[in-house]
Amino acid sequence: MTKLVESPKASSKSFDPKRSILSYFANVGNAIIPELGKELSISVPKVTSVVNELITEGLIQDYGKIDSSGGRKPNLYGVVPHSAFFIGVDVKQTHINIGLLDLQKNLLKVTEHLPFVLDNTQSSLDTLCDHINAFIEELTVPRTKILGIGINLSGRINYETGYSYSFYFFEERPLSQVIEKKIGIRVFLENDSRAMAYGEFCSGVVEKEQNVFFLNLDYGIGVGILIDGQLYYGKSGYAGELGHVPIFDNEIICHCGKKGCLETEASGWALTRMFRQKLQEGSTSVLTGKGLSPETIQMQDIISAAMNDDVLAIELIARLGENIGRGIAFLINVFNPELVILGGSLAQTQEYLQLPVKTALNKYSLSLVNKDTEVKMSSLGEHAGIIGACLLVRDRVLSLI
Questions:
Q1: Closest Cα partner for 357 from 227, 221, 258?
Q2: Closest CA to 110 of 93, 95, 94
Q3: Closest Cα partner for 49 from 39, 359, 60, 242?
Q4: 351: exposed, middle or buried (Cβ count in 10 Å: 0-12, 13-18, 19+)
Q5: Residue 9 has pLDDT above 60, yes or no
Q6: Are the C-beta atoms of residues 162 and 188 closer than 8 Å to each other?
Q7: Which of 18, 99, 155, 313 is the S-S candidate for 306 at Cβ 3.0 to 4.6 Å?
Q8: CATH fold for the domain made of 83-196+384-400
């Protein structure tokens, strides 16, 4: 289990008062010095000294005196929101979303649906870097105040080393270093599903739940796992590859090279394949009325058709939902989580997907287990990845201060 932000009450061996006080201000909010001392188990003189140091560095400010129950009115301190900024880049199969976050967790600017094709090619990587540089050039904040860029990619990512093993592995150097050299700002990589999960955990539908699974339902299927409120990575950092669990007895070859994976019957790739096949067999759809040939139809076209009451699209999404439910039932039976969140592109279909998922859960999971698990749709939508990427890079930069 990996902690992203040092616990305020970490062991003295790893406890850094300056980092802990700044993290408290950034994550919890404004506070008075006695409150900080009590929460962090640091003496008031030490807190005062560190706060003054952070004020000198321009990261903390004095917000003035506040009312108290008696005695002298204490001063309230908190972060200077515009003292530091962080960029989150959420890379999708067909587009890129980019956002800017300040130190106080305010999302200041978002640019969505930048045209892009995620391929394992140098030109695709160059386009990604060009989009990031163009976004930075349009900002009014000083480049020197952007302390880090978080980039979400699908597949196998080692966030600690900065290597990607699914895309852009052209050089011996970590991909994070390759991109950092092109942009000039420190870069952190993260798996897209984990970043989306973290975004929902911090700013989305998660309330008090600490054991949460976020399903990123896109062209593939990934899972972001939170256990006891912390992202779970596994030994090598690759936990969450639910899409490659061999659930089906079929002859369909998955993108991983194996047969019968959940993704072969329950992903955006599967939906696109099934939809095209149905059209070739003679089924009708509003999409054919628009003059689209089966081989050119993409996942987003099918989602849009479903939202416009296309019967074929709705039927196939329901079929997909039941297959996804089988995969979630496996997770529920093994982990017994409090909450499962359905996110990613396919979650745009809302009840068309959620209802068959819930039906499948009742069918395939143990009733004693699934009654304790709530299933919700993502509340952040396309912003989940941006917010998660920004918050993760923010946490990691703060941990280095």
A1: 221
A2: 95
A3: 60
A4: exposed
A5: no
A6: yes
A7: 313
A8: Nucleotidyltransferase; domain 5 (3.30.420)
Q: What are phi and psi of 364, to 5 degrees?
A: -110, -15
Helix runs in 138-186, H state only: 175-183
Query: The pTM is what?
Result: 0.88
Mean pLDDT score of the chain, rounded to an integer? 91
Domain coordinates in residue numbering, the chain: 17-79, 83-196+384-400, 209-378
pLDDT > 70? residue 124: yes
C-alpha pair distances (Å), 162 with each of 111, 169, 196, 399:
25, 11, 18, 17
Longest CA–CA span in the chain (Å) reads: 82
Count each helix (H run) and each strand (E run) in the chain, helices first: 14, 15
Kindly report the CATH number that applies to the domain delimited by 209-378: 3.30.420.40
CB distance 307 to 301 below 8 Å? no
- CATH class of segment(s) 17-79: mainly alpha
- Across 250-256, average pLDDT: 91
